[in-house]
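Progress narrative, Year 2. Work on Family with sequence similarity 133 member A from Catagonus wagneri advanced from sequence curation to structure prediction during this period.
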Amino acid sequence: MGKRDNRVAYMNPIAMARWRGPSQSAGPTIQDYLNRPRPTWEEVKKQLENKKKGSKALAEFEEKMNENWKKELEKSREKLLSGNESSSKKRERKKKKKKKSCRSSSSSSSSSDSSSSSSDSEDEEKKQGKKRKKKKNRAYKSSESPTCESESESKESVKKKKKSKDETEKEKYIKSLSKKRKKAYPEDKPLSSELSSESDYEEEVQAKKKRKREDREKATEKAKKKKKKQHKKHSKKKKKKSGSSHKSG
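Result:
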């Protein structure tokens, strides 16, 4: 069995293009572009002159428009000026009418003097009523001030009563202490000054405060210990449950 021949014949591309012939192009060729129709120098000059004439015509049109606009502005100015003159004339007429009405009212003022006097009396009554209201307000404020003073005095009296009660309690306590000492130690001499009794009273008050603090601290410590015990029990139960689950697994 021999090998298969996979060789292909070589084809020259230039020879193939010649064999196909000229290609059909869709657009114009270079020769067509070079042979295009061109204007002469005279025709170019005419075109430039026509452009200049067109610009002149535009300038003339703009000038005409400006003239028309100026005319319209002058007309509107004349209308505004005429309107202002008419408004000034109307104002003058109104002023004249007011003067005439004032003259007619002056003739009738003699008859209205009585009414004006009554209106004056009413104004005076209003003023007097305002003054009375002001006086009432001042009297009310002055009545409020002694009430405030009485309230402050009552507060001070309450404070004094509290102080007097505290002092009487101290005296009673000191007397009871002295009686107890006399009964317990009849041979001892009585205390010479009241300062010692007062100091004893203060010492006992401080001792009571210390006892209360100690009781509170003990209660807090007991509560903390209970919480710790509960936490330990809970953790032990968790460990037991986890161990039993591993064994079953």
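Residues 187-195 have pLDDT under 50 and may be disordered. DSSP finds five helices and no strands in the chain.
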